[in-house]
Every structure is written in structure tokens, then in C-alpha cells.
Amino acid sequence: MASDEIPAVAAAPEASSSAAPVAQDSNDSQNNGDRRENRNGKRGGRGRDRGNDKPGAQGKRKHGGFGSAKGPVPDKREQVRNNRDAKRRKVIDEEVGGKSFMSIEFTPDEIKAEDRRPKRKVAVLIGYAGTGYHGIQINHKDKTIEGDIFAAFVAAGAISKANADDPKKSSLVRCARTDKGVHAAGNVLSLKLIVEDEDIVEKINSHLPEQIRIWGIQRTVNAFSCYQSCDSRWYEYLMPSYSLLPPQPQSFLGKKITESAMEKGVLGEHLERLDDVKGFWEEVEKNDIEPILAKLGPEVKAEVLRKLQDSNDKELAEDGQTAKKDQDDVSKDETADKDVEMPDVAQGQPEKPTEEAKPAEDVPKEPKPEKELSPVDAAVRDIKAAYVAAKRRYRISPARIERLQQALNLYLGTHNYHNYTVMKSFKDASAKRHIKSFEANTTPIQIGDTEWLSLKVHGQSFMMHQIRKMVAMAVMVVRCGAPLDLIKESYGPRRISIPKAPGLGLMLERPMFTEYNKRAAGFDKEPIDFSKYEDQITKFKDEHIYRRMFEVEEKENSFHLFFNQVDNFRTDYFLWVTAGGVDASHERSDRTERVPKALEAELGDEADGVVEDGT
């Protein structure tokens, strides 16, 4: 933003033609000059040149004050506004070619014709399915949840046309930031809105797609910030129960786990921790894979086995990108609990949500003609499909859920989570976070062929990737039969590379405002509470959030791909799950050390320019 200084305006000439001439003795002029020189320019002389005797300041003109013949005084507020608008237009033109998702422009006549109505500070309770959106936070270039909501506010008359070109004018703040593809059953925005109409919620919803809903709007105290007033947040993470199956014995990680257990003399103890899944993979090989291989000739069979191995190598080469990024990329960073204040450069949104809001997977596509496969490629396809189908048939035992719960219990309390985020050192005080509860539902739900587990975590605040890395750490320890104390060890100074579980399963359940609600009655304000909308929220989750999660997993095999990549990557980054513990794994020298490109997505180090926002 430009400086608030009032610019210098041309001073009047020494002798104005409109003023009476003033006689001045040449000696007086000389004396004044001597007086200035004797003071070494520290105070300057008297009169209009006072203070202009610093080097480079001679002849500098000043504004002459109110009502002088030297020009009108500029309106400081108007000047600041004009500078801000000019800067905004420049950014829009340079960065997005003149079209911004953060600025809804109206003509001066349209703005003038609109009636002025009072704005009130409010909390807006919202829910959304993040599929097809680049997160919640409004910005110039990308389609966002806030962008569509802001446009709906303007279309419904909750934000005036005069303020439609800049969300900062309405003091927009979000309670928790969610990123690309991540859902929220409950989130809160705080801002100033025009809320005189009794049906304002219905009006706003009429301008939104079905996957974004306004649950309610509540008046708050004028100083309310939904981020600052939020005490804690609830998140839910859904994952297929097959995520807890051990690595396949022939995978890189599976072999290393067995070798390490034998070398350390703890094979019996290790197998005991995996007793409830003993023989699972052997049965899959016997009942599902061998019948496919038995139909092949010796040469084709050998080529199929080679190609299966090569496909893993190709996808997981250290110097290359993964052949297919799994749905983990739907959230490039953790839902970060930060109300990023709107930047000085206003950013905008088209007046109404565009067709781009429609999720890609909801748009009908022309079916591609199937390519005829060779016998080798057909067999490889059938074997991969057989492995996925076998995983989906798996039904988790109560003992395995109990072991997962034991792992989750180790997160309770305050710990140092520097290993569960990016760009944080052990000594960074902000890496310490408090977890109030972390529960695994003991009753899995079955959707189609797949059984799903629900995990719910309640914490004060979370850092980038923290929840997804907490889930991955607990799952890795359980599925690999590792000691649970590894989780405790991760809080220490040693750097451990923890993968981040797919973002597909993550959902912000709701933020909590316990302390604010205690004081709200004293200000004659309602508490901020989602429970009054529980029936609507439950229906919305079933129809728009859970359904999308299940459909994407069914189509993309997201969790299968994620664990397949982790299990088959030939690196020592994840060998902390073996009997050798953290000493057997690669320790990154510092937080700036680059990792193999194929691991960037799993570790959360992909170069996407996203910075940690949690506090």
C-alpha cells in the first residue's frame, strides 16, 4: 500500500502577483542567510524555508495549508483508497490477465443507485465438500470456497456493491483453512454483513452450489474474530480398514521388516503383534494370484512377473516423479488453523459461481474405447486388480482396532510435533501442540465392497500436514508390527521421515468456541453452536462429503496406491518401522535437505509454495 504521507504541492512564488508587494532590505536578506549558515543548517532560518536547509532539501516545496492560494488539501482517505485500488488493478492485470476471482466490479452509477444499509459483525456457519475447489481461502487465480461464498453474499445483497471489489472491506476472516479437495462439515467465517432480511440465509444459499451450504448467521460482538476466539477444532479422518494390513512379504519394506526382526532376534515378538492377520497374503497368493499365473505359458508368465516388478520400479524411481499421484494430492497441506488477514491488495470473485465449481468427477465424460491388451498386459492388469479386490474384502478384527487405539492414545497431551510438519525444528516452540482426544470408532462401516474406519481428533490447533502424519505414523506402526513406543520417540530431537496419509479422508468436523460462548450471554449474543443444525449437517455429510470420499476411493484406489508406494520405495527413509528402529532409517541432516522427488508427495515436501499457517 502506498504511504499515507500527503505529497508535496508546489509552493507559491516568492512574490505573488495577487498579493501586495513587500519591501525587503538587501541587508536583511543577507543577515537571514548568515543566521542560517551560522547555525550549520541544524535549525534552519525563519519563514517559509525553515527546515529546508538539509542537504538536498533546498528549494523543496511544501503544502501551504487550508484555504491558501497554494492549492486544495488532498483528501487523505481518498488518496489511500485510490492508491490501493490502483495497486489492486495492477496486480490483477499482471497476475491474472485482468480477471480475478476476488473482485466483483460494478460501475459508479450502479454503486450510487444502491441504497446504503448498515453492516453488522457476524459469524457465518458453513459446510462444504471441497472437491473441485482449490481450498477455502479466497485468492486471485483459483476457484475457492470463499470465492463462491463471497460472490453469493454480493448477489444476495449481504455485501454492498461498493464493497464487492475487495473482501478486506468486509473484514473477512476464516476460522480454519482447508486446502485443495478437503471437506468441512462445519467451519466459520467472521465478517461484516448486511443482515436485515429475515431470509438472508436462504437468499445466499440460492446463489451457491449444493456442495456449499450456509447453516446460519449469528450476530457477534464487534471485536469478534472467529480465528482468535476459537478454542479448539474437531477433525474426522476416514480410511479403509485394509490400510492396517501389513506390507506384502515380497515388497521392499516387507522384506526389510522380516530381515531386521530375524537379525535382532525378535521375529517371534514381531509375528505375535501381527497374529490377527497371519497368513492373509499367503492366502491371496494361493487363491487369487496363482490361478491367473497358472493360465499363462512359461514365457508369458516370466514376462508378467518381470513387468510387475518393473512397474513398481518405474513408479517409484528415486530420481523421477511417481507415475500417478494418488488422491493424496487433493490436499497439499494440512487444514491450517489460521485466519490469514486479507492482504492490502484486494482480490475478487465473479459475481456468481461459475460452472467451474462443478466437481470434475460429477461431469459426464464420453467413455474412451477400450484398448486391446496383449496377453502380458492383460495378466498384469488382472493381477493388480486381484490384489486390490483382496484388500477390499478384508474385515478388521476388534484386536487390531484396539491396537490402533493404543497407538492413538500416545498422542494425548502436549508433545513436540516437529516431525509431523514441515519447516519446523525441534527447538521451535510452536511445534508443541496439545491433543485433547483421538478416538477410533470401534464399529467400522461398510460401503460397497470396502470397510471404513472413522478416526476423530480434538486438538487446540494443528500445523500443516500434522493430522495426516499422525494418522500415517499410527497406521504404519500397527500395520508393520512395530513397537508403539516409536511414537514417543518421534517427539524427540531425532528427525524422522513420516509420510502423510491421503488427504482424501480428512474432514474438518467443526471448530469450538467454548470461552466465547461463556461470555456471549453477557453481551446479549447467541453462542456459536453447530448442534442446532445437526440434522442438516448429518444429511449433508452423507450426500456430499462421505459419498464423494467413497466414490473417489472406489475409482482411484487412493489408499492402495499410497501404501503400495510407501512399501515398495527402495529407500531407508521409512526403515524406522523395522526392528532396527530410528537408527536403521535415514535421518535428514536438517529441514532444508531435499528428498527424492518420488517421496516429495508422501513426505509433504512437494514444491508447491505452500507455507505453514497454523499457530
UniProtKB/TrEMBL annotation:
Family that this chain belongs to: Belongs to the tRNA pseudouridine synthase TruA family.
Alphabetized UniProt keyword annotations: Isomerase, mRNA processing, Nucleus, tRNA processing
Molecular function terms, GO-annotated: pseudouridine synthase activity; RNA binding
Amino acid composition bias (Basic and acidic residues), ranges on this chain: 33-53, 73-92, 311-341, 352-376
Start and end residues of each Pseudouridine synthase I TruA alpha/beta domain: 407-511
UniProt keyword annotation of Iron present: no
Domain of life of the source: Eukaryota
Residues engaged in binding substrate: Y235
Main location: nucleus
Organism expressing this protein natively: Triangularia verruculosa
Function: Formation of pseudouridine at positions 27 and 28 in the anticodon stem and loop of transfer RNAs; at positions 34 and 36 of intron-containing precursor tRNA(Ile) and at position 35 in the intron-containing tRNA(Tyr). Catalyzes pseudouridylation at position 44 in U2 snRNA. Also catalyzes pseudouridylation of mRNAs.
Reactions it catalyzes: a uridine in mRNA = a pseudouridine in mRNA; a uridine in tRNA = a pseudouridine in tRNA; uridine in snRNA = pseudouridine in snRNA
KW Ubl conjugation (keyword) present: no
Gene Ontology CC entries for this record: nucleus
One Gene Ontology biological process: mRNA processing
Low complexity: compositionally biased ranges: 7-23
Protein name stated in the entry: tRNA pseudouridine synthase 1
Active site: residue positions: D179 (nucleophile)
Cell compartments where the protein resides: Nucleus
Region (Disordered): 1-92, 311-376
InterPro entries the record matches: PsdUridine_synth_cat_dom_sf, PsdUridine_synth_TruA, PsdUridine_synth_TruA_a/b_dom, PsdUridine_synth_TruA_C, PUS1/PUS2-like, TruA/RsuA/RluB/E/F_N
Pfam families in UniProt: PseudoU_synth_1 (PF01416)
